[in-house]
Amino acid sequence: MSVNNLPPRAVILGCAGTVLSDDEKRFFAEADPFGFILFARNVESPQQLRTLTADLRECVDRDAPILIDQEGGRVRRLRPPLWRDAPPMQPFGRWYQKNPPAAEAALRLNIHLMADELRQMGVTVNCAPVLDVPVEGAHDIIGDRAFSHKPKIVGHLGRTVCKAFLERGVYPVIKHIPGHGRSLEDSHIGLPVVTETLDALAETDFVPFVMLKDAPFAMTAHIVYSEIDKDRPATLSPIVINSVIRQQIGFDGLLMTDDLSMKALSGDFTELAQQSLAAGCDLTLHCNGEMAEMQAVVKGTGRLSDRGMMRWLEAQAQKKIPEGPLAADAEQQLEAMLKVGMEIASKSA
Questions:
Q1: Is the pLDDT confidence value at 2 over 60?
Q2: Does the annotation count 286 as an active-site position?
Q3: pTM, full prediction
Q4: Which of 32, 258, 259, 282 is an active site residue?
Q5: What whole-number distance in Å separates Cα of residue 312 and Cα of residue 326?
């Protein structure tokens, strides 16, 4: 609960730089967002980042969730040389087809190391794993971020990732529900339209999300599924959220929008926030740190609902307190495992 004993506002916000301005501090204190999200623009050094996450929490006077996108490969906000050079997920999927136990063991250790890096910086939620199932000819915005073209492999390895994050005290976010793998367009730039039937989607795209329906958080796809709701992207569609995500897939965790400032969506930010919550999302997400846009999103976002608060309590029950530090040579162990696994993965590409 917030300091005033009200639920936090149902929004996750970004900030502009590596330190908070006085205006940001005042705004965040008044807005009382559920949490915050970090990007590369907010990251300079480990000490700076620890200070920033502490300052964000001080604004709302509670242990607010702080999110980041640290998938590995090309999508990561903490980068070498200050942080580990974590690989993308696709090679683990290829390795899994040759030696499932070895691939899962390496993936689990990789995620344990990543979780510890994040937690030490004050980051408690990672927007991963990607559970999208790419198809031939789709836009490369997903690409090697995905584990595999095979839905059940995506689900199995997604389970490994979620469990490993929770074991080391970090919440995972499955994305982009109900599936971004068929998109022919980058939703950062335009609004993709997927025309497959509901039956076809259920046989492929939905499968990993059904397998991970007990995850604590999920992030929506800014995609129109024309055979389900031809007029609205999933983020704004009561039909997609209620009939597909909540009922058919069975996901009952905290559902957040993808970034409302992406070009897939258009219109007034207050209205977008209102529409996404009315459609059934629990949380709105705005990432770019632009003050005027954040103010508009906050204007359209009320307090986290009673059901949202219950989902948040259920999420907290899933996260474990790490039993102790990882082995001193854990990173070296992983490097040795990956040397073998990446060679196998490259041969099966």
A1: no
A2: no
A3: 0.96
A4: 258
A5: 28
